[in-house]
Amino acid sequence: MGWSNDASERMKQWYGSKANDIPDCGSSLRVGTRLISICAQRTRVNAPSSAAQLSAVSQQVDGVDDICLVWHCRNLRTDDHPAIEYATEQHAAILPIFIVDPAFYGADGLACDARIQFMLESLADLTDQYASLGGGLTMLHGEPVELLEELDAHVAHIVTTADPTGRYGLRRDNAVAEACDITFVDADGLRRDVPDTRDGWSDHVESYLTAPIHEVDGEEIPIHDVDTDIDPAWIENYYDISPEKQISRVGGTEHAVQVLNEFIDTLSEYPGNISAPTDARTGTSQLSPYLRFGCLSVRQVYQAVDDASGSGQATEMFTSRLYWNRHYNQKLADWAGWMEQAVNPVLEDFHQETHDPDRVEAWKTGTTGYPMVDASMRCLRQTGWLNFRMRAMCASFLCDLLQQPWKIGADFFYYHLLDADPAINYTQFQLQAGVDGTNMLRIYNPRKQVRDNDPDGEFIKKWVPELDALPVEYLDQPEKTPLHVQDEVGVRIGETYPYPIVEYEAAREAIIEKIEAVRAAATKALQHPEVNRRASLSQRGGATQPTADVAIEAVTDTEEEQNGQSSLDDFT
Fold it and tell me: Both 330 and 380 in a single domain?
């Protein structure tokens, strides 16, 4: 993987000599590579017209025989890219493009500036990858269906990857398929266009993960590009991308490879670092945003880890998560409704009658009076990342203890997470909220999570600084701190930090009672073949029989036992 251009040099080329005078904007900046206009005053730029962009492309490609347009949507890399492999095998030349879709930006978009920034950095890296192959990346701005329909007349074919999605992305892809001669290549380990996608699924995924990795040879096929005046710097300027999150990772394949290699060097420590939020930030792979944007493929990561580390608990634990990545993407590929509807129809409007905007706001802002929840939510807002345990705890707190609708929380997570994968975010949130109807209630005790996963208070005191002076022994329940201790340390519960928004034991009993009232109906709904298929884990040799069991603090053992991800046997 030979991409040597440093990101800072890339930015200098786009921004000119002023890049040498990048001001120190504090800890919210990425290490040395943030696009500099975040700190500089911007001049609003105009968007090139669609006609001008299309004219520039057509003039370049009309004289090229058998040129295939490769449309990059999610997979921002060149090696092990199914669409590129297909195009280079079937055609004589390729034109790689990326379309800046206005629908993903602005007040209605479900992507924070930090995730957009990560994407821009990944696009900069992708441009370098193509440059190393003797070509480039053509960037366009506008409505994808209109642009692709016009370009279709000037190229031999259009090809892209088949990426599981929902909502707007699904509607866009369907519209493109209607308007254009396009192939959606699905060589990603998922099963499509078969009666039962779970039949032989495990073997299918294993074959994908272990198959040879395709590498592009720029000498074998011409790679064309067109200067359209659109580049990552233009996008950042035009849409005023100004992240405030404290992000330590930089987008792009070059950086993804570095992160992967660093993780492999410390893989043996991985099993002990997944639960505690502070340990997880440095002890887990941190590859999820790179997988989300396709800077590396799941297969590339799987083989790199497997080749370097061989067998062992840490390797199996991590590689099993790559199977789970494919599993949840398979779920979304099978049914796009995960992003919009509760899997179990009985639970479609669950908690609508108890919707309380004030409770939702307290959860979002980290002012619930539960320090582990508040620290996690503030960490999410400020860094764009949480480990799995804390994501699950916060989802459970919102939907179980506060009795708020799941989709509000899922959309909030999706907006703020740097690694917001639609398949993983929405399926996991539904599972933790219990609205799939299987294991309907798995309550995390946020007090116990303090004792188990932040016993020294490091995480809480970092993100809830108003509790910094509070003795550690009171961090699980600050409201129980004796008044004389509160006076001594200058922390007054109810003033410095809020009282709990709900009383834990009472809230737990209330949700149990509420679940019991719909349990029979939810269980009956699972007998419907379609609902059962969506809700089930796998075939496991036959149709699953999920049950609406109540599991109170089943989430107190190891994470592997909690989330059911302990064994690849789940996929057989």
Answer: no
pLDDT tens digits, one per residue of 488-529: 999 999 999 999 999 999 999 999 999 999 999 999 999 999
Determine the angle formed by the axes of helices 406-416 and 422-433, rounding to 10 degrees.
150
Q: Which domain holds residue 446?
A: 345-562
Tell me if 565 sits within 8 A of 320, measured CB to CB.
yes
Q: 250: pLDDT confidence band, cut at 50, 70 and 90?
A: very high
Q: How many CA atoms lie within 13 A of 41 on its CB side?
A: 0
Which pTM does this prediction carry? Answer: 0.88
* The pair of three-digit structure tokens given for residue 245, joined into one six-digit string: 């999150």
pLDDT of residue 40: 37
CA distances (Å), 449 to each of 188, 244, 399, 465, 477, in order?
37, 28, 17, 18, 11
Please say whether the beta carbons of 432 and 174 come within 8 A: no
Q: How much of the chain exceeds pLDDT 70, in percent? A: 85
Domain total of the chain: 3
**Is residue 549 assigned to a domain?**
yes
Confidence of residue 1 (pLDDT cuts 50, 70, 90): very low
Contacts of 423 (CB under 8 A, 6+ apart): 164, 328, 329, 331, 332, 333, 338
Note whether 373 and 325 are same-domain residues.
no
Residues 224, 317, single domain; the answer is: no
Question: Per-residue pLDDT averaged across 51-76, rounded?
Answer: 95
In 3D space, the residue among 457, 287, 483 whose CA is nearest the CA of residue 374 turns out to be 457
Span 344-355, pLDDT tens digits: 999 999 999 999
Distance, CA of 504 to CA of 501 (rounded, Å): 9
**Mean per-residue pLDDT of the chain:** 87
Task: Collapse the DSSP code of 102 into the 3-class scheme (helix H, G, I; strand E, B; otherwise coil) and give the result.
Answer: helix
Q: What is the DSSP letter of 405?
A: -
**How far apart are alpha carbons 170 and 423 in whole angstroms?**
13
In angstroms, the first-to-last Cα distance of the chain is 34
**Three-state DSSP state, 488:** helix
Asked whether the predicted pLDDT for residue 486 surpasses 50, the reply is yes
Same domain, 271 and 412: no
pLDDT at 537: 61
pLDDT recorded at residue 110: 79
255/263 Cα distance (integer angstroms): 12
Answer yes or no: do 85 and 233 share one domain: yes
Query: What gap in Å lies between CA 228 and CA 210, rounded to an integer?
Result: 39
Distance CA(351)–CA(403), nearest Å, equals 6
